[in-house]
Automatic annotation (TrEMBL):
It comes from Patellaria atrata CBS 101060. This is rhamnogalacturonan endolyase. Residues 551-569 have a biased composition (Pro residues). CDD domains: RGL4_C, RGL4_N. The keyword Secreted applies. The lineage of its organism: Eukaryota, Fungi, Dikarya, Ascomycota, Pezizomycotina.
Length: 600
């Protein structure tokens, strides 16, 4: 009888827990029971979540609450049953924010959306759940953002532990294009952020933007960053962020394919249903198969992306409008266009790489907008450059015998020293050449200082400033500056030559000094024994320069405009071939390019 009674009590308790969908109001609190094992409380004065109980266990911290940013302050909070769903609306009194919580019967998920009409002080917009560390000990990419027992040494957010390892909440980040689900876990529980479908459409930064997901300290903090000033490359977008969700499981990672179409019947400000959207589809060609082909659409209202497969793509459901369109080789832009989207329609748009294939003597790295194949590139997203697990910075690379892992992914003006590339030339390669360096991110004005043998390349000038720490907080992507120099034949010699790379710029001490992150380096000229495969030798023609200049990848324009038509050559009887000098300070020789070329 005792065993039967116990079972009966357990069944009764479970039935009560799973059968009470709805909300109740008591004092200053709104309690939502999802009927799926999750019960949560919302403060009626400010919209904070003050309790998160899942299967009877409290996960909400009692020290700091869960909220947008660190709380919206005094707000108007209301609850209602709408078409069978619980909808809580929070209108902030002092901020341009309206936030929504939605509950669905039998589903242990807090569905959310956040509507903004202006930038939010202090310059960022995030959902932050602060939960009990003792029942949720495992964070995102554990232990990269686990700061307990470690000491802050750079700002207030970057920590060093007694074993020389480093921690920072930025190290928990993943690219938006890949970050659909992330979460924290404990015994028989997982709490997960899900950003399904077009959740990122009103965020800023594009497909390769990364931002904070987690920090483990006194509490276990779970984030979704919608906008911030972290390595910011474009203005905020305004409107509805989401829908997105925080869901509870018994530990398993949930699918990112979360249906939020029921939001269309909830009167959510700024929500655009599927019927009010359109798509773009077509072919995407010209990117070698070893690289991802990424498509990106953007204007000042929205942004979208997808990855091509088999040379074909279909966009997510997009809001109507005119968009700039880019195609990337990995993260490196290789084509651009414009496209218009109409509600209920599908626009066909084929796009092909505009890369040329210059003759290349040697190359270090890949022109893919990423430094991962270079030395320390496999670690930089998850640790500080000073971390004890990092290899030494600087170093020597020898063309023909070294691997990419021998060349540093970043150079600093006051740490790590210079990097050198030794290369041999045959007599037919001692001609005027072009040195090209692609970088992905600059800090404090850092840019390449290039010297080949006794020849010194000109200072290309400081790139556009991003007012945010980059490489020390795991970031590698900014505007993506492109540099090239004409190297005269007199600078080269048959046999061994040496390229020395340093940093123009100053900045602060060590790893906070002026720096830049390397994507790839190549010397363009007659092919030889160490030349890369011609199929991999793409160079966007719009980014090749015959002068020592840096050309940042443009910030997405508020209103996309078609690429300009190249100007025809001016004539005059002479003609410069590809890679020949065609202009510059005190240059008085022929300035007319051969057919199909443009002087840059």
């Amino acid at each position: 009888m005792r065993i039967i009674s116990t079972i009966a009590l357990v069944l009764l308790h479970s039935a009560r827990a799973l059968a009470a969908f709805g909300y109740t109001t008591s004092g200053n609190s709104i309690r939502v029971d999802t009927g799926g094992g999750l019960v949560y409380d919302v403060n009626k004065s400010n919209g904070d979540i003050t309790s998160l109980k899942y299967n009877g266990v409290e996960y909400q911290s009692n020290v700091k609450m869960s909220a947008i940013n660190s709380g919206l302050g005094t707000s108007t909070v209301s609850a209602a049953m709408v078409n069978g769903y619980v909808k809580i609306t929070i209108k902030a009194g002092g901020l341009p924010v309206t936030h929504y919580f939605v509950a669905k019967s039998g589903d242990p998920t807090i569905y959310m959306a956040t509507y903004i009409t202006g930038e939010v002080d202090p310059g960022e917009l995030r959902w932050l759940a602060r939960m009990r560390k003792e029942v949720l000990p495992t964070g995102v990419h554990m232990p990269v953002s686990e700061i307990a027992g470690c000491t802050a040494f750079e700002g207030k957010d970057t920590f060093k532990c007694s074993n020389g390892q480093t921690r920072c909440k930025m190290y928990s980040s993943d690219r938006f294009i890949d970050d659909i689900v992330h979460g924290v876990t404990g015994t028989n529980v997982g709490i997960w952020m899900i950003m399904p479908g077009t959740a990122y459409e009103t965020s800023a930064g594009g497909p390769f933007m990364r931002d904070i997901n987690n920090q483990g300290g006194d509490q276990q903090e779970l984030y979704w960053y919608m906008n911030s000033g972290h390595v910011r490359t474009e203005p905020w977008r305004l409107g509805l962020m989401g829908p997105y969700a925080m869901t509870f499981t018994t530990g398993a990672r949930p699918s990112g394919d979360l249906d939020t179409s029921f939001f269309s019947g909830l009167d959510i400000q700024g929500y655009v249903a599927k019927s009010g959207r359109g798509t773009v589809s077509g072919s995407a060609t010209g990117v070698p198969s070893k690289f991802e082909t990424v498509l990106h659409w953007y204007n000042d209202k929205a942004q979208y992306w997808t990855k091509a497969s088999g040379g074909k793509y279909t966009s997510p459901l997009m809001k109507p409008g005119s968009y700039a369109m880019k195609m990337y080789r990995g993260e490196y832009p290789v084509a651009s266009s414009t496209v218009s989207v109409t509600a209920g329609g599908t626009t066909t748009k084929d796009i092909a790489s505009t890369e040329s294939n210059p003759s290349v003597i040697w190359r270090v790295g890949e022109f893919d907008g990423q430094p991962f194949e270079l030395k320390n590139g496999d670690k930089i997203e998850r640790m500080h450059p000073s971390d004890s697990r990092m290899s030494s910075w600087g170093g020597t690379y020898t063309v023909g015998s070294s691997s990419s892992k021998d060349f540093p992914m970043a150079l600093f003006s006051k740490a790590g020293g210079t990097a050198t590339i030794n290369f041999d030339l045959a007599s037919n390669q001692v001609v005027a050449t072009t040195l090209r360096i692609s970088t992905t991110l600059s800090f404090k004005g850092g840019r390449p200082n290039a010297k080949i043998n006794s020849w010194q390349g000109n200072d290309p000038g400081a790139p556009k400033l991003i007012d945010s720490r980059g490489v020390t907080r795991g970031a590698y992507r900014g505007y993506g500056e492109q540099y090239s120099w004409n190297v005269p034949a007199s600078a080269l010699k048959t046999g061994r030559n040496t390229l020395t790379l340093g940093v123009y710029g100053s900045g602060d001490a060590e790893f906070l000094s002026a720096n830049y992150i390397v994507d790839a380096i190549e010397l363009q000229g007659p092919r030889g024994a160490n030349s890369p495969s011609e199929s991999d030798s793409g160079t966007p023609s719009s980014q090749v320069s015959s002068q020592p200049v840096q050309t940042p990848s443009p910030t997405p324009d508020p209103i996309p405009t078609p690429a300009p038509t190249p100007e025809p050559p001016s004539g005059g009887g002479c003609e410069q071939k590809e890679w020949a000098q065609c202009g510059g300070v005190n240059f008085s020789d022929c300035k007319t390019c051969a057919s199909g070329l443009k002087c840059a």
